[in-house]
Write a structure and sequence with these properties.
Elements: H1 5-17, H2 29-39, H3 44-57, H4 61-65, H5 69-76, H6 82-99, H7 107-111, H8 118-129, H9 138-148, H10 157-170, H11 176-189, H12 208-212, E1 228-238, E2 242-247, E3 258-259, E4 262-264, H13 269-276, E5 284-289, E6 293-296, E7 300-311, E8 320-324, H14 335-344
Parallel strand pairs: 1-7
Antiparallel strand pairs: 1-4, 2-3, 2-8, 5-7, 6-7
Amino acid sequence: MSTNPIPTKLLKWYSSHKRSIPWRETQNPYFIWLSEVIMQQTRVEQGTPYYLRYIEKYPTLLELANAPDDEMMKLWQGLGYYSRARNMLAAARQIRDEFGGVFPMEYKHIRALKGVGEYTAAAIASIAFNQNYAAIDGNVLRVLSRFYGEFSPIDSSIGKKRYAQLADELLNKEFPGEFNQAMMELGATVCKPRQPLCNACPISAECVALSKNLQAQLPIKAGKTKVTKRLFHYLVLSSQGKTLLKKRSSGDIWQGLYEFPLIEGDLNEMQVMEQAALWCKEPFVLKTISNEIKHLLSHRELRAKFYSIETDELIPQTEFTLVNWSDFENYPVSRLIERWRGSSG
């Protein structure tokens, strides 16, 4: 057993300060995996209702694996980062087909699941199976950088190796799952990105950043990701209670979700309306144009307008589905379209 007092301090703090979160009450690897996928890049307050809906709808891994794509994606709607949901469904089917529906125990098999990275595999292996793998997410990187006064960029290859080494050395080998959760909880609630609560930190006495007043400088990130700007013009077509929707294909954002006919680019109203003739026969009437909706993704800034158009007849196209407006809510759509729908009544 390690003689390092830090893990013991963290575990003691965690036992009395951890938040009450549903997935902390189980060692079911399916539930833990589900929570990890949902909570990536998501706040606990936002992700918890989704987690509860998923375990109610699909209480077993096999039920998730056998779920229809659209049904599963509809349940995810509004959470964003839809590739997570697609990968989750693919991984569930992978477990069904390759492991007989039983969640694999070995780290290498968990890591080989679709969409499962090193962090998620380590979290599942340690929490569900008590295996000695350090789970390193953004919160843990921040704790490690500040605690050790480490200036290696967290997004560099050298930095990743360094932080992996530090995390492995610090890991409590007797209770690895609890320790990993303690590190994550410390980063999420105390060692926050801005204005960390150092007075409430159980390991502040040994923290290099606090002793040298470096909290605002750490951790270091090597470079910023370039943000791509895109302009979307959606044609919301209506004819005799119906509209047209298309499922987005692979290779771009929102794969597998439905959307209205889309024209992309820096176009004026006249240019957009000229292209409306591809989907509806003249005469057609432009009823309203929405205010521009700004939607931010991790590496993209989207600006969209919705053109509500009425016509006597829609032009069917191979890739489009003729949908009754009364059934629209059954189709999974992006958060952007969901926001427009909410604002348009």
